[in-house]
Write a structure and sequence with these properties.
Elements (H helix, E strand, L loop, with lengths): L7 H10 L4 H17 L5 H75 L3
Helix pairs in contact: 1-2
C-alpha cells in the first residue's frame, strides 16, 4: 500500500502559527508522521491498481470460459452425431426384425391354414 503524503515542515509551521512552541510542534509532527508510517492505508492509486487487476482477472476468466464453452459445444456436437448414427443403425435393425417377424407370422398363418383347411379337403 502507498504512503500518505505528509509535509512535516508545513505541519510544524501550522502548529507554531497557532501558538505552540517549536519543540512541541516538532514532537507532534513526528508523532503524526510515525502514525502515518505504521498505518496501512490504501491510496486512490492503490485502489485503481486493484480495480485494474480485477478487470484483468475477469477478462482472463471470460476468455477461459469461452474456450471451455466452445470445447463443450464441440463435444456435444460429436456425441449428438454419434448418437444419430447409432440410432440410425438401431432403426434399420428394427425394420429388419419387423420384416422377419412379419415373415414368421405369415408362415405360421399359412401353416395353420394348411393344417386346418387344406388337409380337410
Amino acid at each position: 500500500m502507498g504512503q500518505v503524503a505528509f509535509d512535516t515542515q508545513e505541519f510544524v509551521e501550522t502548529l507554531e502559527s497557532a501558538g505552540l512552541p517549536k519543540d512541541q510542534a516538532k514532537a507532534i509532527s513526528i508523532a503524526v508522521r510515525k502514525s502515518h508510517e505504521v498505518a496501512d492505508v490504501a491510496t486512490k492509486a492503490d485502489i485503481a491498481e486493484v480495480k485494474r487487476d480485477i478487470a484483468d482477472v475477469r477478462k482472463d476468466m471470460d476468455a477461459r470460459f469461452e474456450k471451455t464453452d466452445a470445447k463443450i459445444d464441440s463435444q456435444i456436437a460429436l456425441v449428438r452425431k454419434d448418437l444419430q448414427l447409432e440410432m440410425a443403425g438401431i432403426r434399420s435393425e428394427q425394420k429388419l426384425i419387423r420384416w422377419m417377424l412379419s415373415a414368421l407370422v405369415a408362415g405360421m398363418i399359412s401353416l395353420i391354414i394348411k393344417a386346418f383347411f387344406v388337409a380337410s379337403v
